[in-house]
Amino acid sequence: MKLIKSLYLTDRMFYVLGGTVFCFFASFFYEPLFYLALIVLSLTILLFIADFILLYTKKNIINIERSVSAVLSLSDENSIILRIKNNSSLNIKVKIIDELPYQLSERDFNIKISLDKLAKDTIQYKLTPLIRGEYSFGNIHTMISSVIFFIRKKETALAEFKTAVYPSIIQMKQQELIALNHSSFTQGDNKMKKVGKSYEFDQIKSYVPGDDPRNINWKATSRFNVIMTNHFEDERSQQVYSIIDKSRTMKMPFDGLTLVDYAINSSLALSNIILKKQDNAGLVTFSKSIDIFLKADKSTRQLKKLMFSLYKENYNYSEANYELLYAKIRRSIPNRSLLFLYTNFDSIYALERVVPILRMLNKYHLLIVMFFENTELEDYSQNEAKTVLDIYQQTIAKKFILEKDQIVKELKKHGIQSIKCKPNDLSLNTINKYLELKSIGAI
User: Fold this and answer.
1) 348 in Cβ contact with 403 (< 8 Å)
2) Does residue 194 sit within a domain?
3) In this structure, are strands 140-145 and 151-157 parallel, antiparallel, or unpaired?
4) pLDDT higher than 50, residue 7
5) CA distance linking residue 11 with residue 331, whole number of Å
6) 190 lies in some domain
7) Which residue range is the domain that position 25 belongs to?
8) What is the CATH number of the domain that holds 349?
9) In terms of domains, do 12 and 26 share one?
10) Is residue 331 domain-shared with residue 406, that is, in the same domain?
């Protein structure tokens, strides 16, 4: 029974058999074709037997194994490696069918290669997961054929494996490399004007020309009979929270990812930079209720806690409860902190409903509202209008685009900083804003 299940006829075999049947049929009208059909049928049977012997004299012709990382990165190209070895003395062709996780929606994935006798090969292909969660890889099936190519032998390698797709770790590392080149990470004088002053004491040192005279320590000066000054360094251990709105407006898809996923990837990348700057990174997610509140911290395990919390996050189709968010922040975050709010406003009316709450949050904390441009709408508005319907639809599209700009002005009018950006640029813009605020002493 196993033998029958592992044997498959190739297209070449069906073509030859079809030609033989045609010759038998045509022999009713032209008798010499009957003998040609007999010869072709005999040769076909002999070649079938020879092909069967070549493929089934050895039990396992192919050894194959898969190498997958324990953690995959959301929305990035992840490498999957297959290592294959030909154990036989035949030159063979192999069709590899890898059972991919159902989340990838790949139903006809296969790879075709040729292997010389006793040869080894390494195959690498890319997967781009667009859904967070646990992914299960199945077995690896190989369809092996010889040079005769009348039959294929199926061999299955047991290779079941489970992995997890986390928020984009690859993007987090890329953004870290970019941020390391920022002026706030490099040594030397920073010419940017500071809006505040840092009061985190570092040391007492001798006065040198250029030091602020207001920092002279008169007690130390009288003790050592040399002018001494207090030296301060940039404040650390400041609290920075990423607040993610998971309501229905954030379910909008762009390039296969929802706005929530873009916000999650950005939050992870930002939190990594915050911890590198010795600040405290925290996380809040909400919709109709507060789903996650992770207190800001800078411990060595904080990034893993943030990553796992974002990995387990689910979508929600309800309306966002900003009143509950304000109550939770006022109760749980007593000190002034930097808040990055990831949300999306469909219209100016949606903003007006929550402006009073945003103003109260901005009163006690430094609030940065991050919301999204509708890139597909902007692309559509640039198309050439050919009909009256196109003119109408593009006018409506431009109206919605204009409302996004009005939202920025409305927030600015109330003293709330905001950034409107494309989903793909969210991480970069968020990190740049944090580093800018950090460099000018705004937090």
Assistant:
1) yes
2) no
3) antiparallel
4) yes
5) 71
6) no
7) 2-56
8) 3.40.50.410
9) yes
10) yes
- Do residue 44 and residue 79 come from a single domain? no
Given a contact cutoff of 8 angstroms between Cβ atoms, the answer to whether 66 and 140 are in contact is yes
C-alpha dist (Å) from residue 186 to 190, 226, 374? 9, 32, 35
DSSP 4-45: HHHEEE-HHHHHHHHHHHHHHHHTTTSTHHHHHHHHHHHHHH
Instruction: Give the chain's radius of gyration (CA, Å).
Output: 33
How would you list the strands of the sheet with 133-137, edge to edge? Answer: 71-73, 161-166, 133-137
**What tokens were used for 206?**
């001798």
pLDDT in tens, 355-383: 999 999 999 999 999 999 888 777 777 88
Task: Choose among 286, 256, 441: nearest CA to 366.
Answer: 441
Same domain as 259, residue 338: yes
Q: Are 158 and 80 contained in the same domain?
A: yes
| Residue 56 near residue 6 (C-beta atoms within 8 A) | no
| Residues whose CB is less than 8 angstroms from the CB of residue 313 and which lie 6 or more positions away in sequence, other chains included | 132, 244, 246, 260, 264, 285, 291, 292
Is there a domain that residue 188 lies in? no
* Tens-place pLDDT, residues 24-38: 999 988 888 899 999
